[in-house]
Design a protein that fits this description.
single chain, alpha/beta, seven-stranded mixed β-sheet, 179 residues, globular
């Protein structure tokens, strides 16, 4: 399960209200389909998605430098290339140096300097997985993909303050936690 692209884009737009352009690094072999959905959803959220396809971690510095002047926020997906330890460390340093906040998929990256995370509510994820398993047990004839119904928004206000990032309102109905 993942968080739906529309939910991500809405969270970015509301949390970073002046944002128009969102940078996204990804490996198309791992995240291409999801990024395609996000690109189709971005205009409805009033955002432009600036995508940088990666063939490997060694392409990250060049990709970030190409995006540096053209994005307001970096969106970090759970893509295995982007979420590798050396790449995360580089992304955070880049983010702080250029004052471009990172919106990530896991609260653990807030401790490293990401400004916000949007992840799945673990309890509801278990409930949703059990419901899917029951449907399959009752004879559902095809594999099911589902986006998380409930998410958790977490914010690192210290990192935002150090970057001079002004945060907008929390997402209605979302759990918000400060790190």
């Amino acid at each position: 399960m993942n968080v739906a692209p529309e939910a991500w884009l809405l969270a970015i737009k509301r949390l970073f209200p002046g944002t128009k352009r969102v940078g996204l690094l990804f490996d198309p072999r791992h995240s291409g389909s999801f990024v395609g959905e996000a690109a189709r959803a971005a205009p409805a959220a009033g955002l432009v998605l600036k995508r940088a396809e990666l063939g490997g971690a060694d392409e990250v510095p060049k990709a970030l430098n190409a995006l540096r002047e053209s994005v307001d926020v970096l969106w970090m997906l759970p893509d295995p290339v982007v979420a590798s330890a050396p790449v995360v460390e580089y992304l955070v340093r880049f983010s702080i140096q250029h004052r471009i906040p990172i919106m990530t998929f896991s609260r653990k990256y807030l401790e490293l300097g990401a400004v916000a995370s949007l992840d799945m509510d673990p309890y509801d994820m278990g409930v949703q997985a059990a419901e899917m398993a029951n449907r399959i047990a009752r004879g559902a004839d095809k594999p099911m993909n589902a986006y998380a119904r409930k998410t958790r928004l977490s914010v690192n206000r210290n990192a935002a303050g150090k970057m001079g990032v002004v945060l907008g309102a929390a997402i209605p109905g979302e759990g918000t936690a400060d790190e």
